[in-house]
From TrEMBL, chain A:
It is found in: Cell membrane. Keywords: Cell membrane, Membrane, Transmembrane, Transmembrane helix, Transport. Pfam families: FtsX. It comes from Agrilactobacillus yilanensis. InterPro entries: ABC-4_Integral_Memb_Prot, ABC3_permease_C, ABC_permease_BceB-typ. This is FtsX-like permease family protein.
From TrEMBL, chain B:
PROSITE patterns: ABC_TRANSPORTER_2 (PS50893). It comes from Agrilactobacillus yilanensis. This is ABC transporter ATP-binding protein. Residues 4-243 form the ABC transporter domain. GO terms for molecular function: ATP binding. CDD domains: ABC_MJ0796_LolCDE_FtsE. Keywords: ATP-binding, Nucleotide-binding, Transport. The keyword Acetylation does not apply. SUPFAM superfamilies: P-loop containing nucleoside triphosphate hydrolases. InterPro entries: AAA+_ATPase (IPR003593), ABC_transporter-like_ATP-bd (IPR003439), ABC_transpr_LolD-like (IPR015854), MacB-like_ATP-bd (IPR017911), P-loop_NTPase (IPR027417).
Amino acid sequence: MLYDLAIKNIKQNYLLHSIHIVITALAVLVYFDFSLMAADHKLIRLYQDVLPADQMLTFFSIVVAVLLIVFSIYWNRLLLKQRYQDIGLLQLMGGKISKIVLSISLEILISELIAFGIGILLGLLFYKLLAMILLKISVFKLNIGFFYATKPLLLTLALIPILQIIIFLNNLITIKRHSLIKLLKKKDSNRYSPVPQNRAYLLGVLVIGLMVAAVVMTQHVFRLTYELSWLLHLPESFSFLLVFLIIVGIWTVGMYGLFRIVWPLIFKLIGQNKRFYFKDTHMFTLAELRSWFIQNYRSLAVMSLLMGVAFSMIGIGTLLSRYGMASVDGYTPYSVLTTSKKRAAVVDQLAKERVSYYELAPMHGTVIPISYHLQTVLGDDYVSVANPGLVLTTTTYNYFAKHHHVKTLKLKNHDAALILPVTSIIHDRQYQETGKRPRVKIGEYADLNFNIVKLSNHFPLGQALSFDMAVVVNPSDYAKLSEGIRETYYGFILPKNLSSKAADQIAALDQVQYYHMTDSYLMKYGKGTSKKNPSIFFHNQVYLRQDQQRDMRTAIGLMMFTGVFVSLVFVIAIGELLMLKRLTVAQELEKDYQTLLKIGVGPKRLKRDIIYTQGFIYLLPLVLGFCQSLMVAGVLGIFVNRPSLHLLYLITGVFTLIYAMLYLLTTAFYIRTIHI
Amino acid sequence: MHILEAQQLTKIYGHHLSLKKALTNVSLSVEQGEFLGIMGPSGAGKSTLLNLLSTIDTPTSGRVMMDGRDITHLKGHALAEFRRRQLGFIFQDFNLLDALKVRENIVLPLAVNRLPVDQLQGALTHVASVLGLSELLDYYPSELSVGQRQRVASARTLIVKPQLLFADEPTGSLDSQSATEFLQYLQTINGQEKMTIIMVTHDAFTASFCKRILFIKDGQIFSEIIRQGDRQEFFDRIIDMQATIGGGGKTNALRSGD
C-alpha cells in the first residue's frame, strides 16, 4: 500500500523528482569517482612527491557529500510543503504520523535509489574519462584503465541510510510541529510581508553600508588583522580568523538584507515611476519579482553565498596556481642552475644527452644571515629573523639584470637593493603602499646597516635555491664582507625542453646543501641533520626549471580538477534549486497568467516577460557569486605578484554556459506549466 | 443587428479512444445590447459554449462571427488585440491577481493597451466611483470580501468598455445581497451603456435579470425563452423550463395529461 502510494506520488510529481534525481546522481558521480581515485594506488602514486592526493580527493568528496545532504534536506522541505494538505487529510482520516512520514520517506528512497544507481553507474563508466582528464591537466602522459574498489562503493551507498535518517527525522519533527489546521490550509503559512517603506529606506541604507563595509574590509584585511591583534592581544593567526569571520558575518547579513529589503524596495521605487509602472505588464512583473524576493529571501541569500563559495574555490585555485607558477615561469631566467660543486656533473650530463645550451657568466655571491625591518601593510614593522640570504655586488646583479631586462642599479655607499622572491608575501604593491624603506642588516656587521633604495622581486636566482632574500650592494661594501660562505652559481639556458628521461637524470644530480649558523651568526657548511633546528638551513644544489614546472603543474592540475568538479556540483545544484522554486511559482501563478491572457495580453508578450524575469532571477546569484569570488581573489591577490584571473574568467564562462542551459530549461518548463 | 453569430459549433474533447462530444451543431445569434443568459444542467455544455463564443477555446467544427468577422481561428497577437479591445470577462472565482492592489488590478487592461497614465487615472476614478470601490483602491484582493472582489473583477472588465461582456457564473461565490447588487449593476450597464452581455448561470434568480435565455441540454440548444413581462413572471418561466429539462414542469405535465 505504502509502496503503491509512493510510486503514484513519484509519477504525479515526476518533474520534482527528476530535479532531485539529476542533482543527486551528479553529486554521487563526483563523490564516487573521487573516492575511487583516492583508492586507486596507481593514480595516487603519481602525486606522492607533490601532494597528498588521496587526502585531498577524500576531503573534496566529503564536501560534495555535505552539499548533497544540504540539497536533499532543502528539496525535501519543498516536497513536504507541497504535501501539507494531503498530510492533513491523511491525519484527518486517522492516519498515524509515523506511517505518513514513512510513506514520504519511501517515495524519497525510491527516488534516491534511482539517483544513486544512475550516479554509481555513470561513475564507473566515466571513471576512466575523469581520471584521464585529471592526468592530462596534471601533465602526465600515462594511460589509466577502468578501476573498481569495494570500499568507495560501500562509502557511497552508506550515504543512502544517512540521508534517509536525516530526512525522516526532519519530516517527523516538521509534521509534528504543524497543527492539523495549519496543514489543511493549502497555502504555506510561512509567508512574509514587505518591510514598511519608511523603515525599508533606513534598513536598505544600512544593508548597503554593511556590504560596502565588508568589501572595504577585504581590501584592508591585513591592517585589520594587525590592529585587532594589537587591540585584543591576540595571536595574528587567530586575529586573521576573527577578521575573516567578521567579514563573512557582515556579508551574510548584508546578503539577507539585500534580498529581504533592498530588492523589494528597488522594485517599489521603480513602481513609483507611473509612466513605466502602468505600461504593459510591468506592474505584474514588478509585483511578481518583489513578492519572489520577499518570499524567498533566505534561500536566495544562501544560494548566492553558495555560488560565491563555488566561484571562490575557482578564484583561489586560479591564484594559487598563479602563485605556484610564478616561481617557475618567466621570472626564473634559467633552465638549469647549479652550485659550483655540481656544475661539472651537469655539464657532463648535458653533453651526454647531446643537448645544446648557453651558459651564463658565473654569479658570485656570499651566503650570510640577513635580517630586515620593513613596514608592511599591516601597519607596523615586519622583522625577518636572521635567515641565510645571498649578497651580490651591483656588478653581478647588473649583468643579469641587463640580460633579463631589469633596470640596472646605481648604488651609493651603504645603499642597497632588497630582492625578494616572486612568491614572497611582501611584494611591490605592499611596499608601495607603505612608502617606507626597509632597513637591512647583514650578519653581525654593525657598519653595514643599509639604506634600501629599491625593493624588487627580480631575484636572479628565482626561487630556485630557496633563499628567502638577496641583497645587492656596491662592490666596496661587498668587499668588507669577510664572513659567510662564498658561493658561485652557474646558469644554463636550454633552447628547448629536455626529454623526460634526460630531465630525470639532471634532477637526480641534485643534493641538499646544509648551512649551519654558528653562535655568532656566521655561516658554515654542514652535513645533513635535523630540519627542526632553527640554526640549520638547507637548499638544493641543482635546479631544473622543467622539473619544477612539471611538479607545479601536477599539483595545480589536481587542485583545479577537484575544485572545478566540486564547484560544478555547487553551480548545478543552485541552478536546479532555482528551477524547483520557479516551477512551484509557475504552479501558483498559472491562473494569473491565464487571466492575463483572457484580458488580452498576448502570449508573446507574456513569454518575453517570463524570459526577462527568469533571466534576472538566475543572473543575480551568478553575478553576486562572481563578485564574491573577486572579493576573495582581491584578498588573496595581495600575496600574489601580478595576479592573473584569466583562468577564473574562463571557468566562470564555462559554468555560466551550463547555468544558462538550466535557465533556458527552467523557462521552457515554466512556460509549459502555465500553459501559454 | 447581430453582434455575434455562432454557426454549427461542435466541440469534441478527448483522444480517439475516448471521445466526448460537449457541443453538437449549436447555432445562435446575439443582438447588439442584448443580455443573454445560457442555462442548463451540469455537464450540458454551457461553459464550453461560452468559452467558444469568447475565443477562450476553439471549436472542433463550426465558426463564430463577430460583426461579420470570423474570430474562430484568431491567434497570437491578433487574438490578444481582439480580446483586449472588444471583449470583457467576469468569472466566478474573480481571477484577480493577488500580487497587485485593487487599483492595479482594475487598470491592468488599460495599461496593457498602453493608455497614458492620466487617462488611465481618469477611467479608474470613474469606474471605482460607479462600483463603490473608491475607498478600497489601495487594498490587496486578499483583504477584501468576496462581494468586493467580484466588484473589482467587474471594474477591471468594465474599465475597457468592451463591446461584449462574458460572465461565467458571476454570482456563484456571492451572498444573496452582493449577488443582487451585482446583477442590478449588470442590468444598468446593459441598459445605459448598451453593452452586450452573455452570462452563463445555473441559478434561476440570476438568470431572471437577462432578457433572453438559451437552455442547453446534452450539448444542444433545448429551448429559448424571452422576457416579456416582469422579472417575477420571467423567473417562474425559468423555473418551469428547468423542471421541464429535468423531466417535470408544466409543459411535460400538460403533454402527459396529468
